Amino acid sequence: MITLIRWELHRFYRRLAPYYLYGALALLVTMVTWGMREFGRFSSRGGGAGLEIVGDTRNALMVSQGASLTVAILLLYLVPVVVGEIVGGDGATGVLRTILVRPRRRAQIWLAKYATAWIYALSVSAALMGLSLLLGGLFFGWGKLYSAGDLHNGKLIVLTPREGLAYVALSYSLLTLSVMTAGTIAVALGSWLDNALLPGMFAVGILITLQIITGLPYEWVEPLKPYVFTTYLLDHTKAYPNSFDPATGALQFPAAAIWPMVRVHCVTIFCFAAAGLWRFLQRDVTC
Amino acid sequence: MSSGLAIEATGLTKRFGQRVAVDALNLAVPRGTVYGFLGPNGSGKTTTIRMLVGLLRPTAGSASLLGHDIRRDLIAGLRETGAQVESPAFVSNLSGRRNLEYLGALTLGRVPAALVDQALARVRLTGRDRDRVRTYSQGMKARLGLAQALLCQPRLLILDEPTNGLDPQGMHEVRELIRHLAAEDGMTVFISSHLLAEVQQLCDRVAILRRGQAVAEGPVAELLSSAGRLRIAVDEPDGVDAAALVAEVDGVQIVAREDGYLRLAAPPEQAAEINRRLVSAGVAVGELVIERQSLEDFYLDVTGREAQL
User: Fold this and answer.
1) Chain A partners of B105 at a C-beta cutoff of 8 Å?
2) What is the ipTM of this complex?
3) Which CATH number belongs to the domain containing residue B234 in this structure?
Protein backbone atom coordinates (compact mmCIF):
# COMPACT_ATOMS: atom_id res chain seq x y z
CA MET A 1 0.00 0.00 0.00
CA ILE A 2 2.85 2.39 0.83
CA THR A 3 4.34 1.69 -2.60
CA LEU A 4 1.04 2.52 -4.27
CA ILE A 5 0.68 5.78 -2.34
CA ARG A 6 4.27 6.71 -3.16
CA TRP A 7 3.60 6.16 -6.87
CA GLU A 8 0.31 8.05 -6.77
CA LEU A 9 2.09 10.98 -5.14
CA HIS A 10 4.84 10.80 -7.74
CA ARG A 11 2.25 10.90 -10.51
CA PHE A 12 0.25 13.65 -8.80
CA TYR A 13 3.22 15.93 -8.34
CA ARG A 14 4.28 15.51 -11.96
CA ARG A 15 1.28 17.64 -12.87
CA LEU A 16 1.29 21.43 -12.79
CA ALA A 17 -2.09 21.98 -11.13
CA PRO A 18 -0.94 21.19 -7.56
CA TYR A 19 1.84 23.74 -7.89
CA TYR A 20 -0.49 26.46 -9.18
CA LEU A 21 -2.36 26.27 -5.89
CA TYR A 22 0.84 26.45 -3.85
CA GLY A 23 1.82 29.47 -5.95
CA ALA A 24 -1.55 31.14 -5.40
CA LEU A 25 -1.23 30.56 -1.65
CA ALA A 26 2.24 32.08 -1.57
CA LEU A 27 0.94 35.13 -3.40
CA LEU A 28 -2.08 35.57 -1.15
CA VAL A 29 -0.17 35.10 2.10
CA THR A 30 2.36 37.64 0.90
CA MET A 31 -0.47 40.05 0.15
CA VAL A 32 -2.09 39.46 3.57
CA THR A 33 1.23 40.07 5.32
CA TRP A 34 1.98 43.11 3.22
CA GLY A 35 -1.51 44.44 3.89
CA MET A 36 -1.03 44.05 7.64
CA ARG A 37 2.30 45.82 7.39
CA GLU A 38 1.04 48.66 5.23
CA PHE A 39 -2.23 49.32 6.95
CA GLY A 40 -0.83 49.60 10.36
CA ARG A 41 -1.43 48.42 13.81
CA PHE A 42 -4.68 47.19 15.25
CA SER A 43 -6.45 49.68 17.39
CA SER A 44 -9.88 48.42 18.10
CA ARG A 45 -12.55 49.23 20.54
CA GLY A 46 -14.31 46.39 22.30
CA GLY A 47 -17.99 45.74 22.79
CA GLY A 48 -20.25 46.91 25.56
CA ALA A 49 -17.49 46.74 28.18
CA GLY A 50 -15.74 49.66 26.57
CA LEU A 51 -12.43 47.82 26.48
CA GLU A 52 -9.94 49.41 24.16
CA ILE A 53 -6.98 47.56 22.75
CA VAL A 54 -4.18 49.92 21.99
CA GLY A 55 -0.91 48.59 20.79
CA ASP A 56 0.65 46.48 18.07
CA THR A 57 -0.82 42.98 18.06
CA ARG A 58 0.82 41.99 14.81
CA ASN A 59 3.08 38.95 14.92
CA ALA A 60 3.58 35.58 13.22
CA LEU A 61 0.63 33.95 14.97
CA MET A 62 -1.75 36.77 14.13
CA VAL A 63 -0.68 36.70 10.48
CA SER A 64 -1.21 32.95 10.39
CA GLN A 65 -4.62 33.30 12.00
CA GLY A 66 -5.50 36.03 9.52
CA ALA A 67 -4.35 33.93 6.58
CA SER A 68 -6.53 31.01 7.65
CA LEU A 69 -9.55 33.34 7.70
CA THR A 70 -8.95 34.96 4.34
CA VAL A 71 -7.42 32.21 2.23
CA ALA A 72 -9.63 29.35 3.44
CA ILE A 73 -12.26 30.00 0.78
CA LEU A 74 -9.65 29.54 -1.92
CA LEU A 75 -8.68 26.12 -0.55
CA LEU A 76 -12.28 25.01 -0.19
CA TYR A 77 -12.98 25.67 -3.85
CA LEU A 78 -9.68 24.84 -5.51
CA VAL A 79 -8.49 21.71 -3.71
CA PRO A 80 -11.53 19.70 -4.96
CA VAL A 81 -10.78 20.80 -8.51
CA VAL A 82 -7.15 19.66 -8.21
CA VAL A 83 -7.81 16.32 -6.47
CA GLY A 84 -10.87 15.53 -8.60
CA GLU A 85 -8.50 14.55 -11.37
CA ILE A 86 -6.82 11.80 -9.36
CA VAL A 87 -9.52 9.22 -10.13
CA GLY A 88 -11.55 10.88 -12.89
CA GLY A 89 -8.45 11.80 -14.92
CA ASP A 90 -7.31 8.18 -15.11
CA GLY A 91 -10.69 7.22 -16.50
CA ALA A 92 -10.55 10.02 -19.06
CA THR A 93 -7.11 9.08 -20.41
CA GLY A 94 -7.66 5.31 -20.37
CA VAL A 95 -4.84 4.86 -17.85
CA LEU A 96 -7.42 3.27 -15.55
CA ARG A 97 -7.72 0.20 -17.78
CA THR A 98 -3.93 -0.13 -17.92
CA ILE A 99 -3.76 -0.01 -14.13
CA LEU A 100 -6.70 -2.28 -13.43
CA VAL A 101 -5.34 -5.21 -15.42
CA ARG A 102 -2.49 -5.37 -12.91
CA PRO A 103 -2.84 -7.84 -10.04
CA ARG A 104 -3.94 -5.33 -7.43
CA ARG A 105 -7.26 -5.07 -5.67
CA ARG A 106 -9.33 -2.16 -6.86
CA ALA A 107 -9.84 -1.12 -3.25
CA GLN A 108 -6.08 -0.73 -2.79
CA ILE A 109 -5.79 1.39 -5.91
CA TRP A 110 -8.69 3.65 -4.92
CA LEU A 111 -7.49 4.02 -1.33
CA ALA A 112 -3.99 4.96 -2.55
CA LYS A 113 -5.54 7.66 -4.70
CA TYR A 114 -7.73 8.89 -1.86
CA ALA A 115 -4.74 8.97 0.50
CA THR A 116 -2.96 11.11 -2.09
CA ALA A 117 -5.83 13.60 -1.99
CA TRP A 118 -5.60 13.75 1.82
CA ILE A 119 -1.85 14.22 1.73
CA TYR A 120 -2.25 17.05 -0.75
CA ALA A 121 -4.93 18.77 1.36
CA LEU A 122 -2.73 18.42 4.44
CA SER A 123 0.27 19.74 2.57
CA VAL A 124 -1.66 22.75 1.31
CA SER A 125 -2.90 23.60 4.82
CA ALA A 126 0.57 23.05 6.24
CA ALA A 127 2.09 25.22 3.52
CA LEU A 128 -0.40 27.99 4.26
CA MET A 129 0.28 27.81 7.97
CA GLY A 130 4.05 27.51 7.57
CA LEU A 131 4.33 30.31 5.05
CA SER A 132 2.14 32.70 7.05
CA LEU A 133 4.15 32.00 10.20
CA LEU A 134 7.37 32.50 8.30
CA LEU A 135 6.36 35.76 6.65
CA GLY A 136 4.66 37.02 9.81
CA GLY A 137 7.75 36.16 11.82
CA LEU A 138 10.01 37.91 9.32
CA PHE A 139 7.94 41.08 9.24
CA PHE A 140 6.62 41.33 12.78
CA GLY A 141 8.45 38.80 14.91
CA TRP A 142 7.04 36.22 17.30
CA GLY A 143 4.49 37.08 19.95
CA LYS A 144 1.27 36.37 21.78
CA LEU A 145 -2.03 35.52 20.19
CA TYR A 146 -4.99 37.67 21.10
CA SER A 147 -8.50 36.37 20.98
CA ALA A 148 -11.39 38.78 21.25
CA GLY A 149 -13.99 36.05 21.86
CA ASP A 150 -14.80 37.09 25.44
CA LEU A 151 -14.70 40.83 24.94
CA HIS A 152 -18.38 41.15 25.68
CA ASN A 153 -17.50 40.14 29.23
CA GLY A 154 -14.76 42.68 29.26
CA LYS A 155 -12.03 40.10 28.91
CA LEU A 156 -9.39 39.91 26.23
CA ILE A 157 -7.93 36.45 25.87
CA VAL A 158 -4.18 36.43 25.52
CA LEU A 159 -2.46 33.17 24.61
CA THR A 160 1.21 32.54 25.14
CA PRO A 161 3.15 31.88 21.91
CA ARG A 162 3.21 28.17 22.68
CA GLU A 163 -0.55 28.02 23.40
CA GLY A 164 -1.22 30.22 20.41
CA LEU A 165 0.74 27.98 18.10
CA ALA A 166 -1.20 24.93 19.32
CA TYR A 167 -4.53 26.64 18.66
CA VAL A 168 -3.42 27.90 15.25
CA ALA A 169 -2.40 24.31 14.40
CA LEU A 170 -5.81 23.09 15.60
CA SER A 171 -7.52 25.68 13.43
CA TYR A 172 -5.55 24.59 10.37
CA SER A 173 -6.33 20.93 11.11
CA LEU A 174 -10.03 21.77 11.11
CA LEU A 175 -9.58 23.70 7.90
CA THR A 176 -8.01 20.57 6.37
CA LEU A 177 -11.07 18.61 7.47
CA SER A 178 -13.38 21.10 5.73
CA VAL A 179 -11.24 21.10 2.62
CA MET A 180 -11.17 17.32 2.50
CA THR A 181 -14.92 17.07 2.87
CA ALA A 182 -15.15 18.91 -0.43
CA GLY A 183 -12.12 16.98 -1.73
CA THR A 184 -13.72 13.64 -0.83
CA ILE A 185 -16.81 14.57 -2.83
CA ALA A 186 -14.57 15.30 -5.84
CA VAL A 187 -12.61 12.05 -5.52
CA ALA A 188 -15.82 10.07 -5.06
CA LEU A 189 -17.40 11.65 -8.14
CA GLY A 190 -14.29 10.63 -10.09
CA SER A 191 -15.47 7.04 -9.69
CA TRP A 192 -18.53 7.97 -11.77
CA LEU A 193 -17.19 10.59 -14.15
CA ASP A 194 -14.34 9.68 -16.48
CA ASN A 195 -13.20 13.24 -16.79
CA ALA A 196 -10.32 15.25 -15.34
CA LEU A 197 -12.25 18.40 -14.57
CA LEU A 198 -15.90 17.49 -14.04
CA PRO A 199 -15.59 15.74 -10.64
CA GLY A 200 -13.98 18.82 -9.11
CA MET A 201 -16.43 21.16 -10.80
CA PHE A 202 -19.43 19.13 -9.63
CA ALA A 203 -18.02 19.02 -6.09
CA VAL A 204 -17.73 22.81 -6.08
CA GLY A 205 -21.24 22.97 -7.55
CA ILE A 206 -22.56 20.84 -4.68
CA LEU A 207 -20.71 23.04 -2.22
CA ILE A 208 -22.16 26.26 -3.61
CA THR A 209 -25.67 24.83 -3.94
CA LEU A 210 -25.72 23.63 -0.35
CA GLN A 211 -24.33 26.95 0.86
CA ILE A 212 -27.12 28.76 -0.96
CA ILE A 213 -29.80 26.40 0.36
CA THR A 214 -28.62 26.60 3.95
CA GLY A 215 -28.43 30.38 3.63
CA LEU A 216 -32.06 30.72 2.58
CA PRO A 217 -34.21 32.64 5.10
CA TYR A 218 -36.91 29.99 5.34
CA GLU A 219 -38.09 28.13 8.37
CA TRP A 220 -37.82 24.74 6.74
CA VAL A 221 -34.09 25.28 6.24
CA GLU A 222 -33.34 25.70 9.94
CA PRO A 223 -33.81 22.05 11.01
CA LEU A 224 -31.55 20.95 8.13
CA LYS A 225 -28.64 23.21 8.93
CA PRO A 226 -27.07 21.19 11.77
CA TYR A 227 -26.72 18.17 9.45
CA VAL A 228 -25.29 19.88 6.39
CA PHE A 229 -21.51 20.17 6.20
CA THR A 230 -21.56 23.57 4.51
CA THR A 231 -22.96 25.02 7.74
CA TYR A 232 -19.56 24.34 9.29
CA LEU A 233 -17.25 25.09 6.36
CA LEU A 234 -15.52 28.02 8.06
CA ASP A 235 -15.83 26.80 11.62
CA HIS A 236 -12.08 26.35 11.88
CA THR A 237 -12.15 29.97 12.98
CA LYS A 238 -13.88 28.81 16.17
CA ALA A 239 -10.87 26.77 17.22
CA TYR A 240 -9.65 29.50 19.57
CA PRO A 241 -10.66 29.68 23.22
CA ASN A 242 -13.30 32.29 23.79
CA SER A 243 -14.18 31.95 27.44
CA PHE A 244 -12.81 31.23 30.88
CA ASP A 245 -13.94 28.54 33.25
CA PRO A 246 -16.06 30.42 35.82
CA ALA A 247 -14.83 28.13 38.60
CA THR A 248 -11.10 27.97 37.93
CA GLY A 249 -10.62 30.96 35.70
CA ALA A 250 -8.67 28.81 33.25
CA LEU A 251 -9.11 29.09 29.51
CA GLN A 252 -11.79 26.76 28.18
CA PHE A 253 -11.08 24.50 25.21
CA PRO A 254 -13.70 25.35 22.58
CA ALA A 255 -15.02 21.78 22.34
CA ALA A 256 -18.65 22.81 22.10
CA ALA A 257 -17.88 25.04 19.14
CA ILE A 258 -15.84 22.56 17.12
CA TRP A 259 -17.39 19.20 17.99
CA PRO A 260 -20.52 19.57 15.76
CA MET A 261 -18.26 20.55 12.88
CA VAL A 262 -15.96 17.55 13.35
CA ARG A 263 -18.90 15.18 13.67
CA VAL A 264 -20.74 16.38 10.53
CA HIS A 265 -17.59 16.57 8.42
CA CYS A 266 -16.47 13.07 9.46
CA VAL A 267 -19.89 11.58 8.68
CA THR A 268 -19.98 13.37 5.31
CA ILE A 269 -16.46 12.23 4.45
CA PHE A 270 -17.25 8.65 5.42
CA CYS A 271 -20.45 8.57 3.35
CA PHE A 272 -18.90 10.02 0.20
CA ALA A 273 -15.71 7.97 0.50
CA ALA A 274 -17.73 4.78 0.96
CA ALA A 275 -19.92 5.65 -2.04
CA GLY A 276 -16.89 6.43 -4.22
CA LEU A 277 -15.10 3.25 -3.21
CA TRP A 278 -18.22 1.15 -3.75
CA ARG A 279 -18.68 2.57 -7.23
CA PHE A 280 -14.99 2.04 -8.07
CA LEU A 281 -15.22 -1.60 -7.01
CA GLN A 282 -18.44 -2.26 -8.89
CA ARG A 283 -18.01 -0.28 -12.06
CA ASP A 284 -17.47 -1.64 -15.52
CA VAL A 285 -14.41 -0.03 -17.04
CA THR A 286 -15.42 0.91 -20.57
CA CYS A 287 -13.12 3.92 -20.98
CA MET B 1 -12.02 -25.58 -14.70
CA SER B 2 -9.32 -27.53 -16.46
CA SER B 3 -5.77 -26.48 -15.65
CA GLY B 4 -4.65 -27.62 -19.13
CA LEU B 5 -6.22 -24.50 -20.55
CA ALA B 6 -4.80 -21.01 -20.39
CA ILE B 7 -8.21 -19.44 -20.90
CA GLU B 8 -11.52 -21.15 -20.43
CA ALA B 9 -14.92 -19.52 -20.73
CA THR B 10 -18.27 -21.20 -20.34
CA GLY B 11 -21.49 -19.43 -21.23
CA LEU B 12 -19.77 -16.07 -20.82
CA THR B 13 -22.35 -13.35 -21.33
CA LYS B 14 -22.33 -9.57 -21.12
CA ARG B 15 -25.36 -7.37 -21.53
CA PHE B 16 -25.40 -3.59 -21.60
CA GLY B 17 -29.03 -2.81 -20.91
CA GLN B 18 -31.02 -4.59 -23.59
CA ARG B 19 -28.05 -5.12 -25.87
CA VAL B 20 -26.24 -8.43 -25.65
CA ALA B 21 -22.57 -7.79 -26.41
CA VAL B 22 -21.33 -11.32 -25.69
CA ASP B 23 -23.81 -14.15 -25.82
CA ALA B 24 -23.05 -17.38 -23.93
CA LEU B 25 -19.54 -17.62 -25.33
CA ASN B 26 -17.51 -20.77 -24.82
CA LEU B 27 -13.76 -20.59 -25.23
CA ALA B 28 -10.97 -23.07 -24.62
CA VAL B 29 -7.48 -21.77 -25.25
CA PRO B 30 -4.86 -24.50 -24.78
CA ARG B 31 -1.63 -23.57 -23.03
CA GLY B 32 1.34 -22.84 -25.25
CA THR B 33 -0.70 -21.85 -28.30
CA VAL B 34 -1.00 -18.62 -30.22
CA TYR B 35 -4.74 -18.09 -30.37
CA GLY B 36 -6.43 -15.63 -32.69
CA PHE B 37 -9.65 -13.96 -31.68
CA LEU B 38 -11.43 -12.53 -34.70
CA GLY B 39 -14.65 -10.82 -35.52
CA PRO B 40 -16.12 -7.70 -37.08
CA ASN B 41 -16.34 -4.41 -35.20
CA GLY B 42 -18.88 -4.70 -32.42
CA SER B 43 -18.83 -8.49 -32.43
CA GLY B 44 -17.79 -8.64 -28.77
CA LYS B 45 -14.03 -9.28 -28.94
CA THR B 46 -12.92 -6.41 -26.73
CA THR B 47 -15.85 -6.94 -24.37
CA THR B 48 -14.76 -10.56 -23.96
CA ILE B 49 -11.17 -9.52 -23.29
CA ARG B 50 -12.33 -6.89 -20.80
CA MET B 51 -14.31 -9.53 -18.96
CA LEU B 52 -11.36 -11.93 -18.91
CA VAL B 53 -9.06 -9.35 -17.29
CA GLY B 54 -11.66 -8.05 -14.84
CA LEU B 55 -12.46 -4.68 -16.38
CA LEU B 56 -16.07 -5.73 -16.98
CA ARG B 57 -18.23 -7.96 -14.83
CA PRO B 58 -19.84 -10.83 -16.73
CA THR B 59 -23.64 -10.81 -16.65
CA ALA B 60 -23.60 -14.60 -16.70
CA GLY B 61 -21.26 -17.52 -17.21
CA SER B 62 -17.80 -18.22 -15.92
CA ALA B 63 -14.22 -17.89 -17.09
CA SER B 64 -10.75 -18.68 -15.85
CA LEU B 65 -7.22 -17.46 -16.51
CA LEU B 66 -4.60 -20.18 -16.09
CA GLY B 67 -7.03 -22.14 -13.95
CA HIS B 68 -7.98 -19.20 -11.72
CA ASP B 69 -11.66 -18.33 -11.72
CA ILE B 70 -12.03 -14.66 -12.66
CA ARG B 71 -14.89 -14.09 -10.23
CA ARG B 72 -13.21 -15.61 -7.18
CA ASP B 73 -9.52 -15.42 -7.88
CA LEU B 74 -8.88 -12.78 -10.53
CA ILE B 75 -5.78 -11.36 -8.85
CA ALA B 76 -4.01 -14.75 -8.96
CA GLY B 77 -4.84 -15.05 -12.66
CA LEU B 78 -3.62 -11.54 -13.42
CA ARG B 79 -0.38 -12.19 -11.56
CA GLU B 80 0.64 -14.55 -14.39
CA THR B 81 -1.00 -12.60 -17.19
CA GLY B 82 0.20 -9.65 -19.24
CA ALA B 83 -2.53 -7.73 -21.00
CA GLN B 84 -2.92 -4.86 -23.38
CA VAL B 85 -6.55 -3.89 -23.84
CA GLU B 86 -7.39 -1.63 -26.79
CA SER B 87 -5.11 1.29 -27.58
CA PRO B 88 -2.25 1.65 -25.09
CA ALA B 89 -2.83 4.36 -22.48
CA PHE B 90 -0.06 5.58 -20.21
CA VAL B 91 0.67 8.38 -17.80
CA SER B 92 1.63 10.93 -20.42
CA ASN B 93 3.82 13.13 -18.25
CA LEU B 94 6.02 10.25 -17.13
CA SER B 95 8.73 8.69 -19.26
CA GLY B 96 8.27 5.29 -20.84
CA ARG B 97 10.67 3.82 -18.29
CA ARG B 98 8.86 5.40 -15.33
CA ASN B 99 5.55 4.10 -16.67
CA LEU B 100 6.98 0.59 -16.75
CA GLU B 101 8.37 1.00 -13.24
CA TYR B 102 4.96 2.21 -12.05
CA LEU B 103 3.06 -0.64 -13.69
CA GLY B 104 5.69 -3.11 -12.52
CA ALA B 105 5.29 -1.80 -8.98
CA LEU B 106 1.57 -2.56 -9.21
CA THR B 107 2.51 -6.18 -9.93
CA LEU B 108 5.66 -6.85 -7.97
CA GLY B 109 5.83 -4.06 -5.41
CA ARG B 110 9.17 -3.00 -6.79
CA VAL B 111 10.27 -3.98 -10.26
CA PRO B 112 13.96 -4.81 -10.81
CA ALA B 113 15.65 -2.47 -13.29
CA ALA B 114 16.83 -5.50 -15.27
CA LEU B 115 13.23 -6.49 -16.03
CA VAL B 116 12.44 -2.98 -17.27
CA ASP B 117 15.58 -2.97 -19.43
CA GLN B 118 14.71 -6.36 -20.85
CA ALA B 119 11.12 -5.34 -21.69
CA LEU B 120 12.30 -2.11 -23.33
CA ALA B 121 14.94 -3.93 -25.33
CA ARG B 122 12.46 -6.52 -26.54
CA VAL B 123 10.30 -3.82 -28.13
CA ARG B 124 13.27 -1.67 -29.22
CA LEU B 125 12.45 1.34 -27.10
CA THR B 126 15.72 1.54 -25.22
CA GLY B 127 16.89 4.79 -26.82
CA ARG B 128 13.68 6.73 -26.05
CA ASP B 129 12.86 5.23 -22.67
CA ARG B 130 13.61 8.43 -20.73
CA ASP B 131 11.41 10.65 -22.91
CA ARG B 132 7.94 11.53 -21.75
CA VAL B 133 5.22 9.33 -23.22
CA ARG B 134 3.41 12.41 -24.52
CA THR B 135 6.23 12.79 -27.07
CA TYR B 136 5.84 9.20 -28.33
CA SER B 137 4.33 8.34 -31.70
CA GLN B 138 1.39 5.93 -31.94
CA GLY B 139 3.79 3.16 -32.90
CA MET B 140 6.03 3.81 -29.90
CA LYS B 141 3.03 3.71 -27.61
CA ALA B 142 2.05 0.39 -29.16
CA ARG B 143 5.56 -0.92 -28.42
CA LEU B 144 5.37 0.37 -24.87
CA GLY B 145 1.99 -1.34 -24.54
CA LEU B 146 3.62 -4.61 -25.50
CA ALA B 147 6.54 -3.93 -23.14
CA GLN B 148 4.23 -3.39 -20.15
CA ALA B 149 2.37 -6.60 -20.96
CA LEU B 150 5.66 -8.51 -21.09
CA LEU B 151 7.17 -6.75 -18.10
CA CYS B 152 6.62 -9.29 -15.35
CA GLN B 153 7.33 -12.35 -17.48
CA PRO B 154 3.76 -13.59 -17.74
CA ARG B 155 2.72 -17.09 -18.78
CA LEU B 156 -0.29 -15.76 -20.64
CA LEU B 157 -0.28 -12.73 -22.91
CA ILE B 158 -3.57 -11.12 -23.93
CA LEU B 159 -3.18 -8.58 -26.71
CA ASP B 160 -5.96 -6.53 -28.23
CA GLU B 161 -4.90 -5.35 -31.70
CA PRO B 162 -1.18 -5.37 -30.82
CA THR B 163 0.05 -4.13 -34.20
CA ASN B 164 -2.31 -1.15 -34.43
CA GLY B 165 -0.29 1.95 -35.23
CA LEU B 166 2.88 0.08 -36.13
CA ASP B 167 4.72 0.47 -39.43
CA PRO B 168 5.39 -2.65 -41.53
CA GLN B 169 8.78 -3.23 -39.87
CA GLY B 170 7.20 -2.83 -36.47
CA MET B 171 4.45 -5.30 -37.37
CA HIS B 172 7.04 -7.78 -38.56
CA GLU B 173 9.04 -7.39 -35.35
CA VAL B 174 5.96 -7.89 -33.20
CA ARG B 175 5.01 -11.01 -35.15
CA GLU B 176 8.53 -12.38 -34.70
CA LEU B 177 8.44 -11.53 -31.01
CA ILE B 178 5.12 -13.31 -30.52
CA ARG B 179 6.42 -16.37 -32.38
CA HIS B 180 9.51 -16.33 -30.19
CA LEU B 181 7.51 -15.96 -26.98
CA ALA B 182 5.33 -18.91 -27.87
CA ALA B 183 8.06 -21.16 -29.26
CA GLU B 184 10.97 -20.40 -26.92
CA ASP B 185 9.30 -19.26 -23.72
CA GLY B 186 6.23 -21.49 -23.96
CA MET B 187 3.96 -18.49 -23.45
CA THR B 188 0.30 -18.66 -24.41
CA VAL B 189 -0.63 -15.70 -26.59
CA PHE B 190 -4.24 -14.64 -27.10
CA ILE B 191 -4.53 -12.03 -29.86
CA SER B 192 -7.48 -10.08 -31.08
CA SER B 193 -6.82 -8.66 -34.52
CA HIS B 194 -8.41 -7.47 -37.73
CA LEU B 195 -5.32 -8.34 -39.75
CA LEU B 196 -6.34 -11.73 -41.04
CA ALA B 197 -3.17 -12.43 -42.97
CA GLU B 198 -1.23 -11.76 -39.79
CA VAL B 199 -3.44 -14.06 -37.77
CA GLN B 200 -3.16 -16.78 -40.41
CA GLN B 201 0.63 -16.56 -40.26
CA LEU B 202 0.83 -16.40 -36.52
CA CYS B 203 -1.93 -18.38 -34.89
CA ASP B 204 -2.33 -22.07 -34.21
CA ARG B 205 -6.02 -21.76 -33.48
CA VAL B 206 -8.68 -19.13 -33.99
CA ALA B 207 -12.16 -18.32 -32.81
CA ILE B 208 -14.38 -16.11 -34.92
CA LEU B 209 -17.05 -14.06 -33.23
CA ARG B 210 -20.22 -12.73 -34.77
CA ARG B 211 -22.78 -10.83 -32.73
CA GLY B 212 -21.25 -12.04 -29.51
CA GLN B 213 -21.24 -15.72 -30.43
CA ALA B 214 -18.42 -17.93 -31.69
CA VAL B 215 -19.37 -19.01 -35.21
CA ALA B 216 -16.16 -20.94 -35.86
CA GLU B 217 -13.40 -22.26 -33.64
CA GLY B 218 -10.47 -24.58 -34.14
CA PRO B 219 -6.98 -25.00 -35.58
CA VAL B 220 -6.46 -22.63 -38.51
CA ALA B 221 -5.37 -25.39 -40.92
CA GLU B 222 -8.36 -27.53 -40.03
CA LEU B 223 -10.87 -24.71 -40.44
CA LEU B 224 -9.50 -23.78 -43.83
CA SER B 225 -9.31 -27.32 -45.14
CA SER B 226 -12.81 -28.12 -43.93
CA ALA B 227 -14.16 -25.22 -45.89
CA GLY B 228 -12.32 -25.63 -49.19
CA ARG B 229 -13.78 -24.69 -52.53
CA LEU B 230 -13.87 -26.73 -55.71
CA ARG B 231 -13.98 -25.41 -59.25
CA ILE B 232 -15.09 -27.98 -61.82
CA ALA B 233 -15.26 -27.56 -65.57
CA VAL B 234 -18.19 -29.69 -66.73
CA ASP B 235 -19.65 -30.62 -70.10
CA GLU B 236 -23.11 -32.08 -69.44
CA PRO B 237 -24.89 -34.41 -71.86
CA ASP B 238 -28.54 -33.55 -72.54
CA GLY B 239 -30.87 -34.32 -69.67
CA VAL B 240 -28.14 -34.47 -67.00
CA ASP B 241 -27.93 -31.80 -64.30
CA ALA B 242 -24.36 -31.85 -62.94
CA ALA B 243 -25.24 -29.41 -60.15
CA ALA B 244 -28.03 -31.65 -58.91
CA LEU B 245 -25.69 -34.64 -58.94
CA VAL B 246 -22.98 -33.02 -56.82
CA ALA B 247 -25.44 -31.40 -54.47
CA GLU B 248 -26.33 -34.89 -53.22
CA VAL B 249 -22.81 -35.40 -51.88
CA ASP B 250 -22.38 -34.84 -48.15
CA GLY B 251 -21.17 -31.38 -47.16
CA VAL B 252 -21.40 -29.91 -50.64
CA GLN B 253 -22.99 -26.57 -51.42
CA ILE B 254 -23.31 -25.03 -54.86
CA VAL B 255 -21.86 -21.54 -54.73
CA ALA B 256 -22.18 -20.57 -58.39
CA ARG B 257 -22.68 -21.95 -61.83
CA GLU B 258 -21.17 -19.98 -64.69
CA ASP B 259 -19.74 -20.53 -68.20
CA GLY B 260 -19.45 -24.29 -67.92
CA TYR B 261 -17.98 -24.15 -64.44
CA LEU B 262 -19.44 -25.25 -61.17
CA ARG B 263 -18.17 -23.58 -58.03
CA LEU B 264 -18.74 -25.56 -54.88
CA ALA B 265 -18.13 -25.14 -51.19
CA ALA B 266 -17.05 -28.60 -50.17
CA PRO B 267 -14.55 -30.44 -48.02
CA PRO B 268 -11.55 -31.23 -50.24
CA GLU B 269 -11.72 -34.94 -49.33
CA GLN B 270 -15.06 -35.13 -51.19
CA ALA B 271 -13.41 -34.20 -54.50
CA ALA B 272 -12.92 -37.84 -55.54
CA GLU B 273 -16.56 -38.73 -54.79
CA ILE B 274 -17.81 -35.72 -56.74
CA ASN B 275 -15.66 -36.64 -59.69
CA ARG B 276 -16.86 -40.28 -59.58
CA ARG B 277 -20.54 -39.28 -59.59
CA LEU B 278 -20.13 -36.85 -62.46
CA VAL B 279 -18.14 -39.28 -64.61
CA SER B 280 -20.52 -42.18 -63.96
CA ALA B 281 -23.43 -39.95 -65.05
CA GLY B 282 -21.65 -39.22 -68.30
CA VAL B 283 -20.52 -35.69 -67.44
CA ALA B 284 -17.12 -34.84 -68.94
CA VAL B 285 -14.98 -33.32 -66.20
CA GLY B 286 -12.47 -31.07 -67.95
CA GLU B 287 -10.90 -29.68 -64.80
CA LEU B 288 -11.29 -30.15 -61.07
CA VAL B 289 -9.38 -27.64 -58.96
CA ILE B 290 -9.30 -27.55 -55.17
CA GLU B 291 -9.10 -23.88 -54.21
CA ARG B 292 -7.59 -23.45 -50.78
CA GLN B 293 -9.35 -20.68 -48.88
CA SER B 294 -7.50 -17.91 -47.22
CA LEU B 295 -8.47 -17.05 -43.67
CA GLU B 296 -9.98 -13.88 -45.08
CA ASP B 297 -12.32 -15.82 -47.38
CA PHE B 298 -13.26 -18.12 -44.54
CA TYR B 299 -13.78 -15.19 -42.18
CA LEU B 300 -16.00 -13.36 -44.66
CA ASP B 301 -18.00 -16.54 -45.28
CA VAL B 302 -18.77 -17.07 -41.62
CA THR B 303 -19.26 -13.45 -40.58
CA GLY B 304 -21.03 -12.19 -43.70
CA ARG B 305 -19.56 -10.00 -46.40
CA GLU B 306 -21.27 -6.82 -45.35
CA ALA B 307 -20.17 -4.73 -42.43
CA GLN B 308 -22.44 -5.13 -39.40
CA LEU B 309 -22.54 -2.90 -36.40
Assistant:
1) 3-4, 7
2) 0.80
3) 3.30.70
